[in-house]
Amino acid sequence: MQTEARRLPVVPIALATSLLAAFLVLFSPLAASAHDGLIASSPEADSTVETLPTELTLTFSADLITGEGATEVVVTDAAGNSVIDGAATVDGGVVTQPLLAEAPAGAYHVIWKVVSSDGHPTSDEFFFTVSTSTVTTPTATPTATAAPTTEASSTPAATTTPAPESDASSGASGWIWALSIGGIAVIAALMVWFTVRARRNDTSTDSDAPSER
Question: In whole angstroms, how far apart are CA 144 and each of 68, 140, 147?
């Protein structure tokens, strides 16, 4: 009894091999030429933080190429004002951008541009939100309001000074009137006294005249 070996068809195997080779030829260069991407950030995209941190960090999938103008980071507040504090630094695949210590609450916009390890520039943007403002308010205003209090305290003193003068003048005028009335009374009394005495003298003279006869 003879056993016949089963032969696999040659055409399907050759077709599968050709397709695999075509896949490797087409997609391998694309994978090799892919740019380095952003894999993490602090603050994270679309996150909410209590206050603006002192620095923003961007972490990429590979080391970046450094050089003048190779790395740029822009961070602005809701009003469009920049909050960066100095230039960004690159350490391998990590970009660090210092930020201002005082910043308002609201939405913040981050725009970054780097040069990948393959030499191609790449850029992107994202947003995050700050819930609490760290902007300090000036404290010199209350000192200016102390001036009116000293003026108000000096005003009553000026109004009370004429009072003793009016009392003294009224007292002096009272003495003058008292002396005047007293003087008139004395003069009237003297006039009455002289009149009565003159009448007595006349009476005594008339009474002496018949006795001499």
Answer: 50, 8, 6
Question: At 27, is the pLDDT very low, low, confident or very high (cuts 50, 70, 90)?
Answer: very low
Burial of 60 (0-12, 13-18, 19+ CB in 10 A): buried
Cα angle 183, 186, 188 (rounded to 5 degrees) comes to 110
Please classify residue 18 by burial: count the beta carbons closer than 10 Å to its beta carbon, then call 0-12 exposed, 13-18 middle and 19+ buried.
Answer: exposed
**Cα–Cα dist 100/135, whole Å:** 10
Q: Is the link from the previous residue into 43 a cis peptide, with omega within 30 of 0?
A: yes
CA 8/CA 3 separation, integer angstroms: 16
Tell me, what's the pLDDT at 169?
A: 53
Whether this prediction's pTM lies above 0.90 is answered by no
Residue type, position 50, single letter: E
Question: How many C-beta neighbours within 10 Å does residue 97 have?
Answer: 22
Average pLDDT over residues 35-47: 93
User: What percentage of residues in the chain have a pLDDT greater than 90?
Assistant: 46
From residue 164, how far is each of 59, 167, 169, 173, 177 by CA, in Å?
Answer: 86, 5, 9, 14, 20
3-state class of 200 per DSSP?
A: helix
Buried b (16+ CB within 10 A) or exposed e, 107-144: ebebebebbbeeeeebeeebebebeeeeeeeeeeeeee
Yes or no: say if 112 and 121 are a contact pair by the CB < 8 Å rule: no
Both tokens of 156, joined, read: 């009553």
